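2024-03-11 09:14:02 INFO worker-7 job=invfold-0412 stage=load source=structure_tokens
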């Protein structure tokens, strides 16, 4: 198949491109800064010659959007919104204008769309969309607004010959440098891998191999469209998540961090505490109902595999 990855140079795009290429597919990446074979320039906002790569392709997986690994300042939040909505809109225009449109358009979204919650998991049918929870920072609602606007832009695109699915992805865990697993592992090995703010908040995650397999599953299944949660079926509290990660690395202890300590750490890492403090208890209802079988459904063996691969880099 010919598969086009707008915004495919980030962590998720890199692992997806690597796996798809290894499987024998032709992969074309649309990038603002193309740097090699198979990469085509685009600006993520306007139609251009890049649209020719989509015409005649089989699958589009749009991953474009400013990284969430930053401080959530008004300017950065606005850039997150615009980069996601603008790129989704222009991908939709390219598909609509194609003489031979792709049969599938998978659009990246996020599990952050769901409410901060401890009591019950969110699946696609019964999950509660966030933005109105009491007792959380007001700017968390803007992250939900970004996610809902992102998905709404794909839904509004006039692409009747292309099946569309929105990938409500949890944190994708891979051993690649610079990813979330790499950051958490470095903190753990420094003795800083304890619970944050008590550690009750749930962590939703997905092993990189299962993420790639789930994308392939969605490409192949003609009956799945709309929002799909891409996450392992066993989210767990942060304290248990970090305990398992410490065990995988053979680190006996991890210093706990209070909320204010997390704020200082996030500032030093130029990121935001929402990524640590929001309880994301999300489960893959539609994938499981459709018969998808996870290779790494539980975090402890998944973490052990990731650590083994990280040691072998």
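2024-03-11 09:14:09 INFO worker-7 stage=emit residues=313
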């Amino acid at each position: 198949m010919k598969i086009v990855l707008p915004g495919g140079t980030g962590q998720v795009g890199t692992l997806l491109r690597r796996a798809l290429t290894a499987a024998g597919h032709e992969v074309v990446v649309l990038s603002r800064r193309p740097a090699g074979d198979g990469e085509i320039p685009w600006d993520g906002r306007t139609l251009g010659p890049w649209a020719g790569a989509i015409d005649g392709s089989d699958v589009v997986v749009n991953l474009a959007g400013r990284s969430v690994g930053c401080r959530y300042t008004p300017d950065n939040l606005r850039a997150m919104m615009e980069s996601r909505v603008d790129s989704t809109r222009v991908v939709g225009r390219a598909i609509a204008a194609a003489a031979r449109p792709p049969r599938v358009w998978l659009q990246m979204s996020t599990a952050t769309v769901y409410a901060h919650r401890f009591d019950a998991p969110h699946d696609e049918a019964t999950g509660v969309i966030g933005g109105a929870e009491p007792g959380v920072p007001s700017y968390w609602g803007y992250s939900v607004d970004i996610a809902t606007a992102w998905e709404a832009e794909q839904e509004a695109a006039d692409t009747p010959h292309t099946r569309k699915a929105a990938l409500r992805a949890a944190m994708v865990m891979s051993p690649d440098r610079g990813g979330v697993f790499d950051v958490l592992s470095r903190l753990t090995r420094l003795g800083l891998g304890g619970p944050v703010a008590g550690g009750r908040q749930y962590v939703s995650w997905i092993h990189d191999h299962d993420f790639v397999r789930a994308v392939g599953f969605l490409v192949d299944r003609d009956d799945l469209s709309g929002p799909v949660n891409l996450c392992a079926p066993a989210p767990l509290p942060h304290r248990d998540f970090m305990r398992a990660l410490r065990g995988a690395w053979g680190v006996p202890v991890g210093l706990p961090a209070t909320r204010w300590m997390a704020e200082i750490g996030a500032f030093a890492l130029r990121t935001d505490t929402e990524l640590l403090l929001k309880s994301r208890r999300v489960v893959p209802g539609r994938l499981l109902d459709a018969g998808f079988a996870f290779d790494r459904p539980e975090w402890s063996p998944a973490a052990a595999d990731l650590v083994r691969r990280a040691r072998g880099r």
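2024-03-11 09:14:09 INFO worker-7 stage=report msg="The chain is about 40% helix and 15% strand."
2024-03-11 09:14:10 INFO worker-7 job finished
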